[in-house]
Amino acid sequence: MSFESFLTTDDFSGYEDPEKYKRDWLPKVEKYRQDLEDGLLSEYTAELPASIDVLASKGFNPLKYLYDAKLLTEEEFKITDTPASELVEKLAKGELTAVQTLKAFAHRAIISHQFTNCALQLFVTEGLERAQYLDDYYKEHGKPIGPLHGIPISLKEQMDYKDKITHGSYVSKIINIPGKHGVTTQILENLGAVFYVRTNQPQTLMHLDSNNNFIGLSKNPFHLGLSSGGSSSGEGSIVGFGGSAIGVGSDIGGSIRAPAAYSGCHGLRPTTRRISTNGGISGGAGQESVPAVAGPMGRSIEDLELWMKTYINDGKPWELDQWCIPLAWRDVPKPKPTDLTIAVMYDDGLVKTTPPIARGLKETVAKLEAAGVKVITFEPIKTKLAYDTVHKMYACDGNYKQRELLSASGEPLAKLTKWSLSYGDGAKSYSVAENRKLNIIRDSLRQEYTDYLIDNKVDFILSPTYNNVAPKPEQVYNWSYTSLFNILDLPTLTFQTGLFQDPTKDVWDESHASYTYRNELEKLECSTYDPEAFAGAPIGFQLSGRRYFDEEVIAAGKTIVEILDVNLFNLF
Amino acid sequence: MSFESFLTTDDFSGYEDPEKYKRDWLPKVEKYRQDLEDGLLSEYTAELPASIDVLASKGFNPLKYLYDAKLLTEEEFKITDTPASELVEKLAKGELTAVQTLKAFAHRAIISHQFTNCALQLFVTEGLERAQYLDDYYKEHGKPIGPLHGIPISLKEQMDYKDKITHGSYVSKIINIPGKHGVTTQILENLGAVFYVRTNQPQTLMHLDSNNNFIGLSKNPFHLGLSSGGSSSGEGSIVGFGGSAIGVGSDIGGSIRAPAAYSGCHGLRPTTRRISTNGGISGGAGQESVPAVAGPMGRSIEDLELWMKTYINDGKPWELDQWCIPLAWRDVPKPKPTDLTIAVMYDDGLVKTTPPIARGLKETVAKLEAAGVKVITFEPIKTKLAYDTVHKMYACDGNYKQRELLSASGEPLAKLTKWSLSYGDGAKSYSVAENRKLNIIRDSLRQEYTDYLIDNKVDFILSPTYNNVAPKPEQVYNWSYTSLFNILDLPTLTFQTGLFQDPTKDVWDESHASYTYRNELEKLECSTYDPEAFAGAPIGFQLSGRRYFDEEVIAAGKTIVEILDVNLFNLF
């Protein structure tokens, strides 16, 4: 896709086949939807204050309503608003049972789904059986089964789940029922996690939003008129809403960070090869120019660390997936603010940030500086080249695999599916020689950023996660802020700032009227902003560190949210 | 290449241009050869007992002659027959100077070159200046400059060297003079190494032999009628001959292990991403389906370990090359024989081993078992698929890059250049989608081998490095035994067994006459074997461990050569 010709470069003939879809596939989809409906156990559902459409049009905040209307019991609130890093201790000491814990989260998860449409599969009854098993184990052995004993974890649907349909939002895969868990799911289960929900994601897994032919869009837990992001869309909704203790997403262009930023939680895109993506559906199988990564989403940085540390050090993913490196998770102490040097990218040179992002970044930097952090300005390094290259990498098989997966069912294409199929040169198939040239560009970019960080003694790059706060449904076009760190493969934390869009403050300044757009994408993105429509949307940024130094990013993230005084367990 | 149609699938038109080559390039090559000639300082040269051609025809052993004819002084023998791991201590204590050390190795290196044609560039005078600088540093500071202070290290020419022609055996690159060292060269220099020789390699870097248009073939230091292997050809010769303390090679299909096995030294092909290949000439730039790796060659396993440990832990390659993982080198104790479980691959199912290899493996296994090692038979897992896939990966850009590098000068193509250009589907350019399918096959193979090792509690796979001992010049066709471990990316040590081909023992057994070849490649390889022609060729095997567990491979290698009672410093 060039900035000037998007939505025009791919040829979509041969993808859709309405007749075949309706005849052969839609009945399966309808059955699937019914199963989801059946998973909404009546003892956990809430009565909604109005129809979702009405609530969405009013910018309703379901998370605030959860507290205001006291939709959970006091105990349920207490459990679901305890960080996972504390829950594991309570479970290990026997102060909480796994059943008690799951019931609380399941209640909140089901309400989350009622409001945000976050789940593709709900199987609380199975989860309760597993929780009971863990409680029995605990009673028998006097100790937890593993370091995540009894922690309710939500899973992006894309990951293989033993004996359950796993479709990755491709209708053609609704007939796919894996005989075993994907590696990451298996490791988490080995560590003691409890599963009860698999979450929504967009068709092709290549939107920063969530539309698909299964259940459609997921909604923002802070504002039902906005998107929860994508492609780990349901994870954004459910984790932001507090319906799971930790969520698992995956990210090839922003798919953990965008939903985390939009939906009011934190999320880590780890460096590649630390977390397994083995076993699951993907349109990018065998693509290693810019590999997808899996990673955690949560409401505290400590929870992300708990997940990473136990997953790596106890889960030993390299024993189950040859792709993973036996690089142990190191305990890195939380740095003092004065130990940190952070380079801030206020603008990536491609797409201008909207008022809440510009204000949020300014306020965040002011707080960091006041706390003693050394902040310098980061002048973007070849972001246009990075953008063009990574977008070509996504599509350089000429969308061969996507076409195969989509055309098998003839399902209708979502708006943003067409958008992402137009990336790079769309349907143009690259030769291997051309792909190798892209890899050489990528490696030179990676080296340039590595050199920048080391030569300038800069610890981290702080940047917007997206040029805007959570977008309106199906109005997120620009990946430049997130995909930059995919092509660079830098571990990147999206953290919440505790700031929210404020229509009274977040209006374009006077200069905007005479601003000359640098490209059509920028114009399109800026045109979607309207102060009133985004009231209360969370503001989250990215912190990127050196490749494979995920530990330092997490440690600094703790310092930063402490400086910003962010507490996502106590918002309303 | 299929076994049935090799040497026929590529189109070689457009590569060669004799007129252009002779007019524009040959004069440069001749100047280069003269520079090499000028580097043979007269105070270090020896008088040869006959012409090289005559010696080669007699199967002359120059290493034995070195001792028999006392071509070095006693002190020079003592220094050059001390392991690098001990030299560093002597240098650090001031018991040896860097100048003294280099002079001894330079003398042996130059004699090595006279016999084996191992060097592309010799710059002993520069090396002596560097050594003097190190001695001055030591005097001034009372300590070594780094953990490899004063160690003479030979370098495969392919790696960028500051201000020196770096051509990778492509004539078109004879005009390439890098402004800085490649990363690995730079790290070794930072650690205190002394450079004085850059060594030979084949055209395209894709032969397990050494022919090129610069200086032609390198010879085996144990038998001048045989090949020293390739593509780290000159490293095989010089390290086997003792002309450098440690050599640096690189390996994408066997290029460290073949020359180590043939030329009578040890060599490690590390797991990818631990050692940098950044900065150098390669026809595979941007190719990451089966990446090349750099690694050490030496005369003791301890020396390989010294190189790996200091390179990684002190050199921190991840700070200079984004490709490298910050995975520290772990100190792994030498295992007891009884702690080891080794699966032996006697035959890979593709190409039958010649009598010395079959006998050598049998004798080696007997000694290991006698020492208490648990030995089981390894039944090859999908070796044909691995062979086909990795060979397609080498050429799947349709040899685009090779064609570009070769046709720029129009240089004549060597026999084995045509052979390797015929790999996979030769000149057929693959699409990205096809490349991705190869990657998926590769990953499933890697997983299968990983699962095999873990599920069966097998520590290592022991296998031939090649179906034969060192081949006759330009008669090495089969890569199956080595390239298997490239596609699997398993760290693989080639170690010497202390055994040598023996014409009285190593004849085909009776059954061979009625043996039905499984494919044309096997027939071709077996046809080159003739007991008398290989007298005294070293026998070296491979030990492969789990991906990224290079430390365990090295540790077990120490145990094994101890069991086999191998001492390469004391052979004649």
TrEMBL record, chains A, B:
It comes from the Eukaryota. Its EC number is 3.5.1.4. It catalyses: a monocarboxylic acid amide + H2O = a monocarboxylate + NH4(+). InterPro entries: Amidase_CS (IPR020556), Amidase_dom (IPR023631), AS_sf (IPR036928). Residues 101-553 form the Amidase domain. Gene3D superfamilies: Amidase signature (AS) domain. Keywords: Hydrolase. Belongs to the amidase family. This is amidase. It comes from [Candida] anglica.
